[in-house]
Amino acid sequence: MNPVHRKAKDYRWEGVAIEPYKEDTRALFKSITRQVLFSDPAQESELRYFEIAPGGFSSLERHRHSHNVLILRGIGHCLIGHEVQAVTAHDLVAVPPMTWHQFRATGDEPLGFLCMVNTRRDKPELPTPHDLVELQQDSRVAAFLRDFR
Amino acid sequence: MNPVHRKAKDYRWEGVAIEPYKEDTRALFKSITRQVLFSDPAQESELRYFEIAPGGFSSLERHRHSHNVLILRGIGHCLIGHEVQAVTAHDLVAVPPMTWHQFRATGDEPLGFLCMVNTRRDKPELPTPHDLVELQQDSRVAAFLRDFR
């Protein structure tokens, strides 16, 4: 592999492993893969590519670090805090610190997105049953969690 | 503008200014614009989108910070050190520290790419006449600088 230039084909990259999304077995997620595109010791951040199959979703989580997302393919919906947004190719999504968020592939093709994060970051927090009850008191959040199942 | 979700249309983004590429009038470059997609105080890195019109090029430069690039549209060629590579959509290019580099749009449509960099970084260094003579002693570099003019 050329460490400087890695060719892309169909959202797969030379020398980049297709990894499971999470190690954490508590995480509620479905049909999602992860590819780390850049994890450069000379940089303070990493760039990852996530791909969610139609009907799949990332885990509902929050953390102190922020996420900066650029949609690369497909269409989907995301929950950021209490807001639900439809997203499509090249849209930008900024997930602020300690904000519940989830991405869902709601079209007929995979939803693929780039996510930039600080290399040093805290571990995501998953909602407790109590958090879920609180979240669902907002009708927009309740509809997102219910309608896209 | 919604600070969380910014929609994209034709490689332009809501709330993102199209900026000139450089302030530095010494820089030799042509037909290139810059859009800062993410400059999040909670993150250590920024994500920028550069677009080079057909026949245009970025400045030939080097610096201590590294660049992590993902091609978003078009085709082009890049010089990284003494290596010339053809690049196309979604290819990855890692520019190591203190390595001369330049991107050129060599197809019929614009070459657009994302570039992740540390927020705190040193200023680019431009080649002196002496550096240029040295660089052109490598036939690959000389051909790149000559043939794509």
Distinctive features:
homodimer, 149 residues, mainly beta, 12 strands, globular
Computed CA radius of gyration of chain A, to the nearest angstrom: 15 Å
Give the strand content of chain A: 35-45%
Assembly state (oligomeric) = homodimer
Q: What spatial form of chain A do the alpha-carbon principal axes imply?
A: globular
Topology, number of strands of chain A: 12
- The helix-and-strand class of chain A reads mainly beta
Provide the succession of SSEs of chain A. Answer: EEEEEEEEEEEEHH
Helical element count of chain A?
Answer: 2
Helix content of chain A: 10-25%
Distance between the termini of chain A: 40 Å
Low-confidence stretches of chain A: none
Tell me the greatest interface: A-B, 44 and 44 residues
Sequence of strands across the biggest β-sheet of chain A: 4-5-6-12-7-10
Write the layout of secondary structure elements.
2 copies of one chain form a homodimer.
Chain A: E1 5-6, E2 8-9, E3 12-13, E4 19-20, E5 30-38, E6 45-57, E7 67-73, E8 76-80, E9 83-87, E10 92-95, E11 101-105, E12 111-118, H1 129-136, H2 139-147
Antiparallel strand pairs in A: 2-3, 4-5, 5-6, 6-12, 7-10, 7-12, 8-9, 8-11
How is this structure best described in words?
Two copies of one chain form a homodimer. Chain A has about 150 residues and is mainly β. Chain A contains two helices and twelve strands, in the order E-E-E-E-E-E-E-E-E-E-E-E-H-H. Chain A has helices at about 130-135, 140-145, and strands at about 5, 10, 10-15, 20, 30-40, 45-55, 65-75, 75-80, 85, 90-95, 100-105, 110-120. In chain A, a hairpin with a 2-residue loop joins strand 2 (about 10) and strand 3. The longest helix of chain A is centred in the last third of the chain and has 9 residues, at about 140-145. Chains A and B meet through strand 1, strand 7, strand 9, strand 10 and strand 12 of A and strand 1, strand 7, strand 9, strand 10 and strand 12 of B.
